[in-house]
């Protein structure tokens, strides 16, 4: 995962070996929060060698905006992995992420890492969070 400025004159790698389907996304800025600059969320391949396959196993990782302090926030250890088509989006306050896991909608609190399953029918897709 790399970042660049708008003019394309600066770029930096912030995460190494995340996998081809990492889908990095910055959170909205969090004024006065624990992470006053916000976060970077991305999918991280469990096995880099398998990361190109459509059935590759990924975890949802949250880090500081510069890639430091990375931690897996979903799924819990021992649970099936996310797949590359696992869509996720930041909540408007930058403190929660909505995602699709095994066809259901989940919301994960980034700071507490507590996850809540919101649907049970397995037909959720493409979460969009509005204010």
Brief digest:
The protein is mainly beta and 131 residues long. It has a domain at 2-84. It has strands at 2-4, 11-13, 25-26, 39-45, 58-64, 71-74, 88-90, 96-101, 104-109, 115-117.
Give a written overview of the molecule.
This protein is mostly beta strands and 131 residues long. The protein has a four-stranded antiparallel beta sheet, with no helix packed on it. A four-stranded antiparallel beta sheet has the order 7-8-9-10, with no helix packed on it. It has a domain of 83 residues. The two termini are 28 Å apart. It is 0% helix and 34% strand.
Give a topology summary.
Layout: E1 2-4, E2 11-13, E3 25-26, E4 39-45, E5 58-64, E6 71-74, E7 88-90, E8 96-101, E9 104-109, E10 115-117
Antiparallel strand pairs: 1-2, 3-4, 4-5, 5-6, 7-8, 8-9, 9-10
Chain-averaged pLDDT: 85
Relative helix content: under 10%
Please give the number of β-strands: 10
* Category from helices, strands and their pairing: mainly beta
Query: What's the main sheet like?
Result: 4 strands, antiparallel
Unreliable spans are none
Essential attributes:
mainly beta; four-stranded antiparallel sheet; 0% helix; globular
């Amino acid at each position: 995962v790399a970042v660049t400025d708008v003019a394309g004159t600066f770029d930096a790698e912030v995460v190494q070996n995340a996998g081809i389907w990492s889908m990095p996304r910055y959170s909205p800025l969090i004024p006065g929060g624990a992470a006053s600059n916000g976060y970077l969320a991305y999918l991280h391949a469990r096995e880099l060698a398998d990361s190109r396959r459509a059935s590759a196993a990924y975890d949802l990782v949250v880090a500081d905006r510069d890639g430091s302090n990375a931690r897996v926030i979903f799924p819990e250890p021992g649970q099936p992995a996310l797949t590359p088509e696992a869509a996720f989006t930041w909540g408007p306050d930058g403190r929660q992420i909505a995602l699709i896991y095994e066809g259901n909608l989940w919301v994960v609190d980034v700071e507490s890492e507590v996850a809540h399953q919101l649907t049970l029918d397995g037909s959720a897709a493409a979460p969009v969070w509005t204010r």
